[in-house]
Amino acid sequence: MRKLPWLLLFCFLSAFAQRLAVIGDWGAESPHRPLIAGAMNAQHRQNPLEALLTVGDNFYPSGEPILRYVSDLPPVRIFPAFGNHDVPALNKQLEFFRVERPYYSVRVENIEVFVLYSEDFSQAQRRWLEAALSTSRAPWKIVALHRPLYSSGLHGGARSLRQTLEPLLTQYRVSLVLAGHEHSYERLEANGIVHIVTGGGGAWLRGFASVHPQSKVRLQSPNFLILEATAERLRVVAYNEKNTAIDQVEIKK
């Protein structure tokens, strides 16, 4: 029997994969914000998305929800994380996005996403996270938050968060950490975990300060992510405002 061509096999597998989009630092009136939104809509038309995650700084400058920005995005449920620019209007955003508190988890078949509130990572939140991770039976555990644990950007990684979170991430086999805060794209790998900083969804872009030892790819580019998951593999592709793939990584069981 002849083997299926790689592209045909990929399309066959993708038909049974969950597809999520991820965007960060997006709610700003920049030239590339509507282009990123348009590229995400093109992805949704081509192969429907099941949900959209944000990694914070949803609305600049002070977190007040702007319906026009949301209306530009694909018509799917949005599960937000919240960043420093969201803090002044946090309660309004909680109501707007229909979530009860700024940290929670959401299960989409093979994926469970643990959304954290990095602006105030309390002991109560840490206890909740450990309990949620320990009871999760999802094939893929993903953590989403605003401030990255590792970064070569101008802010650098959040060391205190890293010291608090990393033992839990390794113990409970989290595969992927998604963050924003830096207005660029970076993929890093640390202690067997892939970290992706996707902060190019709309805010004005910034460069890099000093290269972190764990850094694999760094791009000063508008960007968003598409996650595709089956029970055996998790594929992450980063796209720019032209809907061109700029990076990708595949994690297998």
Describe this structure in words.
- With 253 residues, this protein is an alpha/beta fold.
- Helices cover 25% and strands 27% of the residues.
- The chain contains 6 helices and 13 strands.
- The chain has helices at residues 6-14, 32-46, 67-71, 90-97, 123-135, 159-171, and strands at 18-23, 51-54, 78-79, 104-108, 111-115, 140-144, 176-179, 185-190, 193-198, 215-219, 224-229, 233-239, 245-252.
- The strands form 2 sheets. A 7-stranded mixed β-sheet has the order 4-5-6-7-9-8-10, with helices on one face. Strands 3-2-1-11-12-13 form a 6-stranded mixed β-sheet, covered by helices on one side.
- A hairpin with a 2-residue loop joins strand 4 and strand 5.
- The chain is globular and about 40 Å long.
Topology (SSEs and partners):
Blueprint: H1 6-14, E1 18-23, H2 32-46, E2 51-54, H3 67-71, E3 78-79, H4 90-97, E4 104-108, E5 111-115, H5 123-135, E6 140-144, H6 159-171, E7 176-179, E8 185-190, E9 193-198, E10 215-219, E11 224-229, E12 233-239, E13 245-252
Parallel strand pairs: 1-2, 2-3, 5-6, 6-7, 7-9
Antiparallel strand pairs: 1-11, 4-5, 8-9, 8-10, 11-12, 12-13
